[in-house]
Each structure stands twice: as structure tokens, then as C-alpha cells.
Specification:
Elements (H helix, E strand, L loop, with lengths): L1 H14 L8 H9 L8 H18 L6 H15 L3 E2 L12 H7 L1 E2 L1 H14 L4 E6 L2 E8 L2 E6 L5 E3 L1 H12 L1 H5 L9 H18 L3 H14 L4 H14 L2 H14 L6 H18 L1
Parallel strand pairs: 1-2
Antiparallel strand pairs: 3-4, 4-5, 5-6
Helix pairs in contact: 1-10, 2-9, 3-4, 3-6, 9-10, 10-11, 11-12, 12-13
Length: 279
């Protein structure tokens, strides 16, 4: 438990500043330390740097977008053997960067993290795109934007396919707008990784690990409404009325439109009476 608290503290300090100052790989390896406390960061950063060096050496001074992607795909998928873990998608190891780099198996967001980091370290504008339900990569080249699916061995996606994914979840207006094309922020990526892990642990009935991931999500996004409510209700179940009131009050503050406002207010009043009675 002390180990988790210490690592969570390091993570919170890392993500509390501006997004541009966050080292995404370091943050992802801190997440991995929740399950692999003895991992050594340099073993994994050196691999990313090595692949980036190979990519840089294989390309000329001003490579075209197609050349960048074909060489990235060759190095990562043909030579190194990375692939999406379709057979065991919900294995938590797919969400830990150290294990993804060791096993060369992952889910869309972790494979996209590897792909974008290799491209970025080589000096190319490769960024994550947070499509609903499927994380991909965008190469923002002077000749235009190309979309790549690292989970499916670097398959090139058309803009139409990407729009269809967005429309399916958010509607036609969102699909036609430019918002989905925006590179995902580092905090968005970390939060999505943590939510994946939280859901996986919950499915596995590993309640302590799921609660720990909830704490980490709120370290990245302290005012995330869904997580504030969830943690508040969990604190209530644990008998920690003071912490439950704190989170549920904050949930109401940051949730301007919520259908459960009356129910939450009743619960807060009940918890306050319990706290007063205990004192």
C-alpha cells in the first residue's frame, strides 16, 4: 500500500502541471509500476529511442507522409512484430507499457502510444487521435493528414471510416466537425488508459485495484464528474462519510446538468447527519 501511495504521489506531481511538460512515457511507466514495482524505466525508453533512430536513419531529409508510415510500419510490425492482442483484449498486461514493449502485444491506445512515441522521437508529427471506442494515430504532414490503426498492423484508415466511427457514437454533427481530428492531449490519453484498467479490474472483481485506478484518474482530472460520484459512493460504502460528502458535493458543483441532483443532495444530508452523530 505504501508503494502505491508513493507512486501515485509521483504520478500526481507529474500530471499536475501544463500538458506540454508531461512526459507521457514516464507517466505510462508509473501506471505500470502499480503492477510491476521493480521495473526500470530506461529499459523501455531505450527501446523507443532505438526504433526512432532506425526510422530516422532509414528516411531522407524530407520524407513524404507515405514513406514515414511505411517505414514505421515496417520497423514496428514487420521487424519487431507488434500486434493487437485480439485473443485476450482485456488482459491488463495490454495496458501496461512495459509489458506491451516486452510482449509486443497491446490494445489500440497502448500500441498507438508506442507508434506515436517512436515517430515523435524521430522528429515526425505523429499524434494520437481519440476516436470513440478505438484509439488511432494521425500523421499531420504538410501534404495532408493520414490516419493509421496500430492495432491492425498500421492499416491506413480513410477519413470517411473515421467519421463513421464518430457518427456512430456522437452523431452526424460531431462527425462533420473538425473536433475529432484534434490530437489527443496527454491527460486525455492517460485518463483513457486508466479508465480501461479500472474497467478491466472491475470485470475481474479486483476491487482494490479498480479503486486505485479511480484515484489515479482523479489525479489527472480532479473534477471528472463520473469518477467523483463513483468515489463518493464507494467512500459511503466504506463508512467514510466525510470523504463521501466531499466528493459528492464536488460532483454537484461540477455537474451543471445532472438528473440525480435531488438524490445526491438527500444522500449528502444523510451522510452529514451520520458524521455529526459520530462526533
Amino acid at each position: 500500500m505504501r508503494h502505491l501511495e508513493a507512486v501515485r504521489g509521483q504520478f500526481a506531481a507529474l500530471v499536475e502541471g501544463p500538458e506540454e511538460t508531461i512526459d507521457l512515457v514516464q507517466a505510462a511507466l508509473l501506471i505500470a509500476r502499480t503492477a510491476f514495482p521493480e521495473l526500470i524505466d530506461s529499459r523501455y525508453t531505450e527501446r523507443l529511442d532505438c526504433w526512432a533512430d532506425r526510422l530516422r536513419q532509414d528516411l531522407g531529409a524530407s520524407p513524404g507522409a507515405g514513406d514515414i508510415l511505411s517505414n514505421l510500419n515496417r520497423i514496428l510490425f514487420d521487424e519487431e512484430g507488434f500486434q493487437g492482442n485480439k485473443d485476450h483484449y482485456y488482459d491488463p498486461q495490454n495496458s501496461f507499457l512495459n509489458r506491451v514493449l516486452e510482449r509486443k502485444l497491446g490494445i489500440p491506445i497502448t500500441l498507438s502510444l508506442v507508434y506515436s512515441e517512436v515517430g515523435r522521437r524521430a522528429g515526425f508529427p505523429v499524434y494520437g487521435i481519440a476516436l470513440p471506442g478505438h484509439f488511432i494515430i494521425g500523421l499531420f504532414h504538410m501534404s495532408g493528414t493520414l490516419y493509421v490503426d496500430p492495432f491492425n498492423r498500421g492499416e491506413i484508415l480513410t477519413e470517411t471510416v473515421c467519421r463513421e466511427m464518430v457518427e456512430l457514437r456522437y452523431g452526424r454533427e460531431a462527425a462533420l466537425g473538425p473536433g475529432w481530428k484534434t490530437p489527443a492531449g496527454k491527460k486525455t490519453i492517460l485518463t483513457r488508459m486508466l479508465r480501461n484498467l479500472k474497467g478491466i479490474y472491475r470485470q475481474m472483481s479486483q476491487d482494490l485495484q479498480s479503486f486505485e485506478m479511480l484515484q489515479w484518474i482523479l489525479a489527472v482530472e480532479p473534477d471528472a464528474p463520473a469518477e467523483l460520484k463513483e468515489r463518493g459512493l464507494l467512500y459511503e460504502a466504506m463508512g467514510n462519510s466525510a470523504f463521501a460528502v466531499r466528493d459528492l458535493e464536488r460532483y454537484l458543483d461540477v455537474s451543471s446538468e445532472t438528473g440525480d441532483k435531488e438524490m445526491i443532495e438527500v444522500k449528502i444530508n444523510q451522510l452529514r447527519r451520520t458524521t455529526q452523530w459520530l462526533h
